[in-house]
Amino acid sequence: MMKKYQVMMIAGLMVSACATTPNDPNKQAKDKAAMGAMLGAVAGAVIGYNSDSNRERGLARGLALGAVAGGVAGAGVGSYMDKQQAEFNQQLASERQSSAVEIQRLQNENLKITMNSEVSFDSGSSMMKPAFKQTLQKVANILRRYPRTTLRIVGYTDSRGSEAFNVRLSEARAKSVAWALQDFGVAHARISIEGRGEANPRDTNATAAGRQLNRRVEMFIQPNNDIQS
User: Fold this and answer.
1) I need a surface site. Which of 38, 58, 88, 157 has the fewest CB within 10 A?
2) What's the pTM value of the predicted model, to 2 decimals?
């Protein structure tokens, strides 16, 4: 049987692997990676210990290889979305600097791209401004390189105008974004749209600054469940 200190070493790995930062929005995904590393380490250690004539060497080798293999399998989603987010941050740097676009990492490794309607659509219109199409082409180029995601595009307005008009306008704007992405090569099957009108305001509709924040299109990029590496 494995010696006491060897068992304690594996137990220590298990405890440290499961430790994550409080309030981490991606705690679930990181716990999954840690659990994969933990289980891989234990399994690798047992196999290595039993299969190598030098038990100490087999234990160490199995522990290391098992942890790496298990961690890679568990961390696949996080790594995939990390790389995609890094490309968005780089390619949309000028849009982020001018507050035309915001990029956020959400729960379960989802990405959220918020597009300011002031720079994307004229007031009361779903006709996209030419300059905004250039931004969407950058987005589409990245999305094509990361096909293992689905997209949900949600449009919003401020509270001016009737509720019914705002819902129609927000949906039309979301649809315009979806069409542009498809024109740039993103598969139709990956995209869904929704218009929520004046719902879920980011700020008060009592001020011009607040209404500007509320007029927006949000894109949620969700990783597929089958991502492993």
Assistant:
1) 58
2) 0.70
Domain ranges of the chain: 4-74, 92-223
CA-nearest of 213, 144, 223, 222 to 183 is 144
At 122 the pLDDT is 86
Give the three-class secondary structure for 224: coil
The architecture (CATH level 2) of 92-223 comes to: 2-Layer Sandwich (3.30)
Tokens matching residue 155: 């449009």
* pLDDT lower than 70: segments of the chain: 1-75, 228-229
Question: Residue 223 phi/psi, 5° resolution?
Answer: -70, 145
Which amino acid does the sequence have at 115? M
Query: Are 108 and 150 in contact, with CB atoms under 8 Å apart?
Result: no
The SS3 assignment for 182 reads helix
HSE, side-chain direction, 13 A CA sphere, residue 131: 11
CA angle 98, 122, 135 (to 5 degrees): 45
> Please, where are the H alpha helices in the chain?
4-17, 27-51, 55-91, 93-97, 117-120, 130-145, 163-183, 208-214
